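Cross-check.
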Amino acid sequence: MFSKKVKHSFAPVRAGETSVGQTAADFERARDYVAKQRRPLIAMSPPILAAVDELREFLFQSVYSEAIAKDETVKARKVLRLLYQHFRENPDQLPAELRESGRRDTVEQMVCDYVSGMTDHYALRKFEELYIPRLWTAWI
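Predicted model, tokenized:
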């Protein structure tokens, strides 16, 4: 039914099993049990994690260490810091599914989860939306 990669992530909540006799409530109980143990619901299998670590090491040695990337790192850190600060001060602007997930995380943890899950493009769009003034074209 699922590939091995997907099956690894579904294993903690038994979602890879046949759905015969398994209700949404069964899934929710299993999901809540995993969350209470503070284990991630989605995880990489050991071989995939090893490959990602190898790729990350290559990228840091061969790509990110270049002068251009180093210059951009300073700006990227500022963007992330400002996004973190904004959402920590305005937790009501976090996505509803994160705020209403039933987890008992602190605001800081929810903000970290949200910001760390952003792609580069999404983080820059969100930063622009929050901090870059827009022209008031309706007034012109």
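The first helix runs from residue 4 to 10. Helices lie at 4-10, 24-36, 46-62, 67-89, 96-99, 107-116, 120-131. Passed to J.P. for a second look.
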